[in-house]
Protein backbone atom coordinates (compact mmCIF):
# COMPACT_ATOMS: atom_id res chain seq x y z
CA UNK A 1 0.00 0.00 0.00
CA UNK A 2 2.72 2.46 0.98
CA UNK A 3 4.86 1.46 -2.01
CA UNK A 4 2.00 1.91 -4.45
CA UNK A 5 1.24 5.35 -3.05
CA UNK A 6 4.92 6.24 -3.28
CA UNK A 7 5.03 5.08 -6.90
CA UNK A 8 1.88 7.07 -7.67
CA UNK A 9 3.32 10.24 -6.10
CA UNK A 10 6.59 9.65 -7.95
CA UNK A 11 4.58 9.42 -11.16
CA UNK A 12 2.92 12.76 -10.46
CA UNK A 13 6.27 14.38 -9.73
CA UNK A 14 7.89 12.92 -12.88
CA UNK A 15 4.94 14.20 -14.95
CA UNK A 16 5.36 17.65 -13.38
CA UNK A 17 9.08 17.51 -14.13
CA UNK A 18 8.46 16.52 -17.75
CA UNK A 19 5.75 19.17 -18.22
CA UNK A 20 8.05 21.78 -16.66
CA UNK A 21 10.84 20.86 -19.09
CA UNK A 22 8.51 20.99 -22.09
CA UNK A 23 7.13 24.37 -20.98
CA UNK A 24 10.63 25.70 -20.30
CA UNK A 25 11.78 24.58 -23.75
CA UNK A 26 8.74 26.16 -25.42
CA UNK A 27 9.33 29.44 -23.59
CA UNK A 28 13.02 29.40 -24.52
CA UNK A 29 12.06 29.02 -28.18
CA UNK A 30 9.10 31.41 -28.28
CA UNK A 31 9.98 34.06 -25.69
CA UNK A 32 13.52 33.62 -24.34
CA UNK A 33 13.47 36.89 -22.41
CA UNK A 34 10.10 36.03 -20.87
CA UNK A 35 11.11 32.68 -19.39
CA UNK A 36 10.88 32.93 -15.59
CA UNK A 37 13.35 30.06 -15.15
CA UNK A 38 10.94 27.15 -15.00
CA UNK A 39 13.82 24.89 -15.99
CA UNK A 40 15.24 25.14 -12.49
CA UNK A 41 12.36 22.94 -11.29
CA UNK A 42 13.13 20.06 -13.65
CA UNK A 43 16.13 18.43 -11.92
CA UNK A 44 14.70 19.04 -8.44
CA UNK A 45 11.43 17.34 -9.38
CA UNK A 46 13.47 14.64 -11.14
CA UNK A 47 15.36 13.97 -7.91
CA UNK A 48 12.03 13.52 -6.15
CA UNK A 49 10.52 11.24 -8.81
CA UNK A 50 13.42 9.02 -9.89
CA UNK A 51 13.45 6.83 -6.76
CA UNK A 52 9.92 5.69 -7.63
CA UNK A 53 10.95 4.84 -11.18
CA UNK A 54 13.92 2.88 -9.89
CA UNK A 55 11.78 0.97 -7.37
CA UNK A 56 9.26 0.15 -10.10
CA UNK A 57 11.98 -1.60 -12.10
CA UNK A 58 12.29 -4.32 -9.41
CA UNK A 59 16.02 -4.64 -10.05
CA UNK A 60 17.38 -3.63 -6.64
CA UNK A 61 19.88 -6.50 -6.58
CA UNK A 62 21.28 -5.67 -10.02
CA UNK A 63 24.63 -3.81 -9.77
CA UNK A 64 23.97 -1.99 -13.07
CA UNK A 65 20.58 -0.80 -11.79
CA UNK A 66 22.12 0.41 -8.54
CA UNK A 67 24.89 2.21 -10.44
CA UNK A 68 22.28 3.78 -12.75
CA UNK A 69 20.32 4.98 -9.73
CA UNK A 70 23.34 6.43 -7.94
CA UNK A 71 24.64 8.14 -11.08
CA UNK A 72 21.15 9.49 -11.81
CA UNK A 73 20.90 11.02 -8.35
CA UNK A 74 24.40 12.52 -8.64
CA UNK A 75 23.73 13.81 -12.16
CA UNK A 76 20.38 15.34 -11.26
CA UNK A 77 21.78 16.93 -8.10
CA UNK A 78 24.57 18.46 -10.17
CA UNK A 79 22.09 19.58 -12.83
CA UNK A 80 19.99 21.26 -10.14
CA UNK A 81 22.97 23.44 -9.21
CA UNK A 82 24.03 23.96 -12.83
CA UNK A 83 20.51 24.84 -13.99
CA UNK A 84 20.03 27.30 -11.15
CA UNK A 85 23.37 28.94 -11.97
CA UNK A 86 22.70 29.17 -15.70
CA UNK A 87 19.00 30.13 -15.57
CA UNK A 88 18.74 32.26 -12.45
CA UNK A 89 22.17 33.59 -11.50
CA UNK A 90 24.08 34.25 -14.72
CA UNK A 91 21.40 36.23 -16.62
CA UNK A 92 21.44 38.95 -13.95
CA UNK A 93 25.21 39.45 -14.11
CA UNK A 94 27.25 41.61 -16.48
CA UNK A 95 28.80 39.72 -19.40
CA UNK A 96 32.35 39.89 -18.03
CA UNK A 97 31.29 38.36 -14.71
CA UNK A 98 29.28 35.66 -16.51
CA UNK A 99 32.35 34.76 -18.52
CA UNK A 100 34.52 34.53 -15.41
CA UNK A 101 32.03 32.29 -13.63
CA UNK A 102 31.52 30.01 -16.62
CA UNK A 103 35.29 29.73 -17.12
CA UNK A 104 35.85 28.95 -13.44
CA UNK A 105 33.06 26.37 -13.31
CA UNK A 106 33.77 24.82 -16.72
CA UNK A 107 35.31 21.61 -15.34
CA UNK A 108 32.43 21.16 -12.90
CA UNK A 109 29.87 21.78 -15.65
CA UNK A 110 31.62 19.14 -17.77
CA UNK A 111 31.74 16.63 -14.90
CA UNK A 112 28.03 17.15 -14.20
CA UNK A 113 27.13 16.74 -17.87
CA UNK A 114 29.21 13.57 -18.21
CA UNK A 115 27.73 12.10 -15.01
CA UNK A 116 24.24 12.79 -16.33
CA UNK A 117 25.13 11.23 -19.69
CA UNK A 118 26.65 8.13 -18.04
CA UNK A 119 23.55 7.75 -15.87
CA UNK A 120 21.31 7.94 -18.95
CA UNK A 121 23.35 5.26 -20.75
CA UNK A 122 23.13 2.91 -17.75
CA UNK A 123 19.46 3.70 -17.22
CA UNK A 124 18.72 2.89 -20.86
CA UNK A 125 20.48 -0.47 -20.49
CA UNK A 126 18.60 -1.24 -17.27
CA UNK A 127 15.22 -0.17 -18.69
CA UNK A 128 15.63 -1.87 -22.06
CA UNK A 129 14.20 -5.22 -20.97
CA UNK A 130 11.05 -3.63 -19.57
CA UNK A 131 9.63 -2.53 -22.91
CA UNK A 132 6.65 -0.20 -23.28
CA UNK A 133 6.77 3.29 -21.78
CA UNK A 134 9.81 2.43 -19.68
CA UNK A 135 11.89 1.59 -22.76
CA UNK A 136 10.50 4.52 -24.76
CA UNK A 137 11.30 6.88 -21.89
CA UNK A 138 14.81 5.47 -21.59
CA UNK A 139 15.52 5.97 -25.30
CA UNK A 140 14.22 9.56 -25.25
CA UNK A 141 16.09 10.30 -22.01
CA UNK A 142 19.34 8.97 -23.47
CA UNK A 143 18.93 10.94 -26.70
CA UNK A 144 18.29 14.12 -24.70
CA UNK A 145 21.20 13.37 -22.36
CA UNK A 146 23.55 12.99 -25.33
CA UNK A 147 22.60 16.51 -26.40
CA UNK A 148 23.03 17.82 -22.82
CA UNK A 149 26.43 16.13 -22.53
CA UNK A 150 27.69 17.30 -25.90
CA UNK A 151 26.03 20.74 -25.88
CA UNK A 152 29.27 22.72 -26.37
CA UNK A 153 29.97 20.82 -29.59
CA UNK A 154 26.49 20.98 -31.14
CA UNK A 155 24.68 23.70 -33.11
CA UNK A 156 22.27 25.82 -31.08
CA UNK A 157 19.26 24.67 -33.12
CA UNK A 158 19.88 21.08 -32.06
CA UNK A 159 20.27 21.87 -28.37
CA UNK A 160 16.63 22.98 -28.09
CA UNK A 161 15.57 19.40 -28.76
CA UNK A 162 17.01 18.06 -25.49
CA UNK A 163 14.16 19.55 -23.48
CA UNK A 164 11.58 17.98 -25.78
CA UNK A 165 13.19 14.55 -25.51
CA UNK A 166 13.89 14.54 -21.78
CA UNK A 167 10.56 16.18 -20.97
CA UNK A 168 8.75 13.52 -23.01
CA UNK A 169 10.78 10.78 -21.30
CA UNK A 170 9.85 12.09 -17.86
CA UNK A 171 6.18 12.23 -18.89
CA UNK A 172 6.34 8.63 -20.20
CA UNK A 173 7.91 7.37 -16.97
CA UNK A 174 5.51 9.37 -14.84
CA UNK A 175 2.53 8.06 -16.78
CA UNK A 176 3.84 4.51 -16.36
CA UNK A 177 3.97 5.01 -12.58
CA UNK A 178 0.52 6.59 -12.50
CA UNK A 179 -0.99 3.64 -14.37
CA UNK A 180 0.93 0.99 -12.45
CA UNK A 181 -1.31 0.91 -9.34
CA UNK A 182 -4.35 0.47 -11.59
CA UNK A 183 -2.75 -2.69 -12.99
CA UNK A 184 -2.80 -4.43 -9.58
Describe the SSE topology:
Elements: H1 2-30, H2 41-56, H3 63-89, H4 95-128, H5 132-149, H6 156-159, H7 161-183
Helix pairs in contact: 1-2, 1-7, 2-3, 2-7, 3-4, 4-5, 5-7
Descriptive report:
This protein is mostly helical. It is globular, with a radius of gyration of 16 Å. It starts with a helix and ends with a helix. It has one domain. The model has no long low-confidence stretch (mean pLDDT 90).
In short:
By secondary structure, the protein is mostly helical.
What is the tally of helical segments?
7
Overall pLDDT: 90
User: Structural class given helices, strands, pairing?
Assistant: mainly alpha
Helix content: over 70%
Strand-residue fraction? under 5%
**Mind describing the biggest β-sheet?**
none
**What is the number of domains?**
1
Q: Please trace the helix and strand order, writing H or E for each element.
A: HHHHHHH
Number of strands: 0
* CA gyration radius, whole angstroms: 16 Å
Distance N to C terminus: 11 Å
- Point out poorly predicted stretches: none
Overall geometry comes to: globular
Amino acid sequence: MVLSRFLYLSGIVLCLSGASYLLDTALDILAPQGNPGIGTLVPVLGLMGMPGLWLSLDRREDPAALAAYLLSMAGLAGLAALTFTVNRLLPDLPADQRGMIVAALGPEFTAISMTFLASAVLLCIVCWRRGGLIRLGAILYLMGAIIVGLRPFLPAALTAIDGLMIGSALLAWGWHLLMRPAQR
